[in-house]
Amino acid sequence: MGSMGEDVVGEEFLVRKITEIYEHVSKLPSLKPSEDVNTLFTELVTTCIPPSSIDVAKLSKENQSMRSNLIKLCGTAEGFLERHYANLLSTFDHPLQHLDIFPYYSNYLKLSLLEHTILANHAPKVASAATRVAFIGSGPLPLTSIVLALHHMKSSVFHNYDVDPVANSMASRLTLTHQDLSQRMLFRTTDIMDVTTDLHDYDVVFLAALVGMDIADKLQVLNHLANHMAPGAMLMLRSAAGARAFLYPVVDPSDLQDSFEVLSVFHPTDEVINSVVIARKHSSPLQKNQHQQQSVENQMVLPCKRCSKIEAAGFNHGCIVEEQAS
């Protein structure tokens, strides 16, 4: 482990490198897939993947602004990339047989397996027999929903929410010719902030990383889910840690604890970028008060009782699992 001085120097170099890439990205005439776009974003991801102790909350205002703008640029570029491949896939008679043409498909396979493994560890009945699942922010290429429905949650009905009707139209075309998924993948064009009573029907809600690109918007969505999800329902959301927080927004588990019991936070250190947070909606005010009292009494991170199961699933690449509840 390096000294504090070495850490500071390393963090300064990291921020300079990311700022340099940001300046090039921000000057691109378009963020649609191209050689320049692909090269710069590959360099950015490669820079952000290695483990880092950097705390983005402690960045200067200037660097905070740069990071916020960079996350938005990443989101825009990701949207263009998904649209490009959704269009390409729709040219096949059976699009779901060709998902591997998407360059990051293997990452989605790993992330979906990771999320399902964590869900199964904490809520095995939900993972194996959830009736309805919501995925918020599904986009034009809803790979997480597709992979979960095909390989892990084979009886669940997935309601995919996106505000963009074009994205939903593109996504629905991918499943039309699949006899099973055409019946179990539904696409709803609406702002999730306008969905109230329907949220009570889901056993588990997945929240995409780029729904709410700044913390204020993210917290609005989380508060809305807290107000309308069913007691005891599971929430799966994506965050980021270390330098990966220059690519995606960070969710602090403490922001959830008024309405949810945070069960664990998982920080991959391999090519899977997103951290995974799993939480359970409090069943009653009494449970909420008991959980808050436990949090006050036990501030330390507890050892993970489920690490061996996650490692057995193939996620033993230096991952950090933080158990928030006993």
From TrEMBL:
EC number(s) per entry: 2.5.1.43
First-level EC class: transferase
SUPFAM superfamilies per UniProt: S-adenosyl-L-methionine-dependent methyltransferases
Keyword S-adenosyl-L-methionine: yes
GO molecular function: nicotianamine synthase activity
GO biological-process terms attached to the record: nicotianamine biosynthetic process
Catalysed reaction, written as an equation: 3 S-adenosyl-L-methionine = nicotianamine + 3 S-methyl-5'-thioadenosine + 3 H(+)
Keyword Transit peptide listed: no
Pfam family, one: NAS
Keywords: S-adenosyl-L-methionine, Transferase
UniProt xrefs under InterPro entries: Nicotian_synth, SAM-dependent_MTases_sf
Its job: Synthesizes nicotianamine, a polyamine which serves as a sensor for the physiological iron status within the plant, and/or might be involved in the transport of iron.
Family: Belongs to the nicotianamine synthase (NAS)-like family.
Protein known as: Nicotianamine synthase
Species of the source: Zostera marina (Eelgrass)
